[in-house]
Amino acid sequence: MEPMSAGLMIAIVVAAFAVFVVVKTAVVVPQQNAYVVERLGRFHSVLDAGFHVLLPFADVIRYRHTLKEQAVDIPEQICITKDNVQVAVDGILYLKVLDAQRASYGIADYYYAISQLAQTALRSEIGKIDLDRTFEERSHINGMVVTELDKASGPWGVKVLRYEIKNITPPQDVLAAMEKQMRAEREKRAVVLASEGERDAAINTAEGKKQQVIKESEASRQQQINEAEGQAQAILAIAEATAGGLRKVGDAISAPGGVEAVQLRVAEQYVEQFGHLAKVNNTVILPATLSDVGSMIAAAMNVLKTARAEEPVRNAAVAPSRAGPAMPPRPPLPRP
């Protein structure tokens, strides 16, 4: 094998050097990333997503930032509330780099600076409220911490999006007191609900009895009305039937043989009624003419004749006059 010529060796070295320079100067920036380039030790530019070629030996990528939203864990710290109770509070912070140049040169380490500022702002906000309100006003505390951080992080090119409190842990004795208070409040609520249920049940029962009494009275009233109407209709029907019966009896008496039939009927009723009188009472007062049934029938027939004789007179008195009412006298005529 012949030794490699000097020219070929130089060409290989030059080619390797060219490849090395291309590899070191060609840069591909991923999406949602930003690279800060310094030229000869001074800020030159910010490379966005895409392919870029740097100036060999002069340009250097000094900082690499991600533009995605980042979550920073804020460690637990002890805070003192307005009523002097120590509580342990931790949280999580969400931020995003908006300006890569200011994030590179505005502060040495914005993660550390923002976490420290978040802890101090949280202690300040917790110290303004009582222990009971710390659990109720988490959203308010988170908003105030974000507001304070946003004021300071603006020059750093970082935007604090939100802060969320993860845990608020009071001391054990305070937790025990809170559990007792919670248990007492629940028992109180249970007693109040039970009393309200009994009250509602009593009201419903009374209302039901009231409705029952009203319905019963209405039903009784309607029953009495119906019974009265039924009795009135029955009385009217009986009166009409009696009148019809009497009318037929009168017709039968006026017919030939009617008087004899009446005498026979009166005699039967006379004997029958005396028979009933002897069965009901021990003491019986008998008329002196008991043996003379014919005189009793004659007396009854005289009553019948008298009634028949008075009936035309009564009808004549009741019937209106056919001549009509008398005409009033005519007034005299005026003289001329």
Q: Would you kindly provide a brief summary of this structure?
A:
The protein is an alpha+beta fold. The protein has helices at residues 6-25, 100-105, 110-126, 131-136, 138-153, 172-254, 258-280, 293-318, and strands at residues 26-29, 33-39, 42-47, 50-53, 59-66, 70-80, 86-97, 158-169. The longest helix has 83 residues, at 172-254.
Strand percentage: 15-25%
SS summary, helix count: 8
**CATH architecture descriptor of the domain at 68-170:** 2-Layer Sandwich
Helix content: 55-70%
Q: What's the shape?
A: rod-shaped
Number of strands: 8
SSE run: HEEEEEEEHHHHEHHH
Q: Rg from C-alpha positions?
A: 63 Å
Strand order of the largest sheet: 3-2-5
- Derived from helix and strand composition plus strand pairing, the structural class reads alpha+beta
Low-confidence stretches: 317-336
Which sheet architecture does the biggest sheet show? 3 strands, antiparallel
Q: In CATH, what is the homologous superfamily of the domain at 68-170?
A: Band 7 domain
Report the mean per-residue pLDDT as an integer.
Answer: 84
The CATH class of the domain at 68-170, by name, is Alpha Beta
CATH topology of the domain at 68-170: Tetrahydropterin Synthase, Chain A
C-alpha end-to-end distance? 186 Å
List the helices and strands and how they pair.
Blueprint: H1 6-25, E1 26-29, E2 33-39, E3 42-47, E4 50-53, E5 59-66, E6 70-80, E7 86-97, H2 100-105, H3 110-126, H4 131-136, H5 138-153, E8 158-169, H6 172-254, H7 258-280, H8 293-318
Antiparallel strand pairs: 1-4, 2-3, 2-5, 6-7, 7-8
Helix pairs in contact: 3-5, 7-8
Region (Disordered): 313-336
Main location: membrane
Biased composition (Pro residues): 326-336
